[in-house]
Design a protein that fits this description.
Blueprint (H helix, E strand, L loop, with lengths): L4 E8 L2 H10 L3 E6 L4 E6 L2 E7 L6 E5 L15 H10 L4 E3 L9 E6 L5 E6 L2
Parallel strand pairs: 1-4, 5-8
Antiparallel strand pairs: 1-5, 2-3, 3-4, 6-7, 7-8
């Protein structure tokens, strides 16, 4: 099962303080808008998202349709197909993608330790 590009989304209290800290670790902005309280940073193959007031908990994030540079892939497994496969495997969902839709969509599942996992397709 290919879930897409992986990143860790961090719930931060002060996006600028967090940005400055992660830049000291060698991360650089890849996308986002700090004025809207979100920023995506990258260091080599490692991607993190900083989200102030947008998410409640640190979240594992997968993006079907993107590579690790947020570039569109020609071929990928649609989020609704992933959702159907996970349902067939008995995974419970916190939120679900509209299975009758197409294009952008997302779902959230939670691992046994309470860690949210967001599968978020942007195209």
């Amino acid at each position: 099962m290919d879930l897409g590009a992986f990143s860790v989304s961090l719930a931060v209290r002060d996006i600028e303080a967090s940005r400055a800290f992660y830049e000291k670790l060698g991360f650089a902005a890849l996308g986002g808008d700090p004025a809207q309280n979100w920023l995506i940073l990258k260091n080599g193959d490692h991607v993190i998202g900083l989200f102030q007031g947008i998410i409640e908990k640190n979240t594992l994030t997968f993006n079907p349709g993107w590579d690790s540079n947020a570039a569109a892939l020609d071929s990928f497994t649609d989020v609704r197909d992933l959702q159907r496969e996970l349902k067939a495997r008995g995974v419970e969902f916190l939120t679900e993608a509209d299975e009758s839709g197409s294009g952008p969509g997302h779902f959230v599942i939670v691992d046994p330790d309470g860690n949210p996992i967001l599968v978020d397709q942007h195209r």
